[in-house]
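Follow-up to my post from last week.
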Amino acid sequence: MRKIKKAAAALASLSLIVVSACGSNNNTVNETSNTTAATNAVVKEEATAAPQENVKLRIYAQYSDDDTKLPYDYAVAELKKEMPNVELELEVQAQDDGQKLKTYAATGNLPDIYQAGVDIINTFKKSGNILELDKYTDLYGFKDKMFSSTMNTLTSDDGHVYAFPYAGNEFMLLYYNKELFEKNNIKVPTTYDELMIAVKGFNAAGVTPLALFAKEKWPTVALYDMFVTRQEPAGIVKLDKGQVSPSDPAYKQAAEKIVELVKAGLLPKGATNLNYDQAASLFYEGKAAMFLNGQWEIATSTEKLGDKAGWMYFPGVDAASYETSKYSFIGGGGPGGYAVNPNTKDPELTAKVAAFLSLKYAEYKYTQRGNPIVATKVEIPVVTEYPAMMKQLSDDIEKITSTTAFAWGLSDAKFKAAIEDATQSLMTGGYSVEQFIKDVTKAVPQAK
Amino acid sequence: MRKYLGNKTAIAIFTLPALLLYTIMVFYPIMQTFFRSMFEWDGLSAGTFIWFDNYKELLNDSVFHTAIYNGLIFAAIITVTQIGIGSILAFAVSDVSFKGRKILRISFFIPVVLSITVVCQLWLSIYNSEYGLMNKLFDMLGIQYHQDWLSSGKSAIVAIAFVNAWQYMGYHFALLLAGAKSVPEQYMEAARIDGATKLQAIVKITIPMMAETYKFCMVFAVTGGLNAFANMYIMTSGGPGTSTYTLTYLMYRSAFRVGEFGYGSAAAAVLVIECLLATLIINRLVARERISY
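User reply:
Got it. Predicted complex:
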């Protein structure tokens, strides 16, 4: 019995020890978690109070000429003032249809911030390689600074935001050399018939009617779109969405008109092998009367030709169509700008940097590059006066009734490739309209 | 030797590194290409297995037909030009009585070591329809034959093939020259004693004895032609339209411009099969019996 009592006492003591030990353990856990919470709070407080920890972010952005280098450098300099602890490591964007960026994404090596267009946004959102920025659009009042007319550059088709845009809706313009028209006594064309007269007149005078850098395929799409929009303001966008067929009258007649004009000598010899420099030289040197390019060409054309350079409204099917379709512009914008890698260390900070860079990039273009075509409002005064051609465009912006899209803004990659190939073939004059319709029809997506 | 061949461990040890490298660098990617060709895949997301749908689509794709046709035209032109002219130059330079053969031997090889970009830029100028050398040459000869060499759907592929033929002719020339020199001199002496002319000796003795070299050159030229890419990428970007597409260009366009990696892989798989078939046919038809001397 005594043995049993001793054993019971020992067991009780042991139980007490275990219980107290457990209690002590629980206390330790609580204490530890309390300490951790406290530490986190301190860290957070420190981070809020003094976010001076140096942060290095990789950025993949355009940086190839004055139009991209200067705004970027300005934005980075402004960022240094706003967030001195943030350092950007720039990798210059390759002109490779996004191959390098896609390879980075496939190998998990995506930069923290990268420039994205429609194609990249559509591909990356499927594979989870782009951060949805909906909750960050208030950073620096970004959304409030957007023009209502440029909201299409912020919001994607699915209603979400994936990139902070800086460029507004850009346009394609038909530039012309006023002096050449006057010298050769040729009327600036307002109709297709007058355009044909101009083509024949310039050919007779040994002047190239239209310089087109058709080696790059997007200008050939723009030329086709120019003719389509005289009858169908939505132009190639409707084809991209599968809402029309290339055999519909507006689309078929545009192809027919191009073939007719090309055969009459609209383009220089070997146009499909002409790059930008070669085509632009023809225009700058007074060897070509017209030149098709985006509104970003205004600065260089003004510099090279001065007052001799101007841009005209696209010739219409007839005089009446010219007036009605005068403000149906081609080009336009789509979602794009600085996007953020979802796996970046601090998404909020990276989004903040991306938003800030976009705002400052637009600010520089607006105030110092003479370019009012930006996505966000700029509140500081213009430093560089707009050239006359830009003033004309700026005055017309409010009157624009419709825009379309540049080839790179098309949403269906397969259609984009097909229309680029087919319109380039049209520029040779040896490609039939029937073949064009057949090739494009195969790529037109089913109605969306 | 017999002792060595009997030692299976030694054979395994010596062949294993090469075998491993080949498996990792060649065999595995090829198998992956074939496997991925059965997917609808954008290169980033998980693809959808669609069996042979990509191949069915390829067969109905007019660009695929253009690519196959261009590959064959390209291969034919560079094979005939590089091996034909390469042979003439090699036989001329291998003749000891030929003056200036040392300088010519170096000159013919210079284009091979030039960057393909440099060569293409050079020929872009030559082919320029406004001020290019080619059209000027016709002018000088009084022939009215001005052409848009690279802007015409029909002539562009031929024009590009000649650029490749010109650049790599020196490579085939070097191989053929080495082959011609390795033919034992006593055979030629015997032919001379029998009264054969130089041309007869070349046709009847040298060329048949160089069958192995010709086989090698043909495999290189034909497969090089079938998978041509860089020349058209630099000179015409596949254009005008799709008129200078090859299978490699179609693969590039599908994968990188359109984002259809599965379809691009199917084009690549067809290219692999095409090259293997060409190699098999050449091996079957040329130098079937090994000549040893």
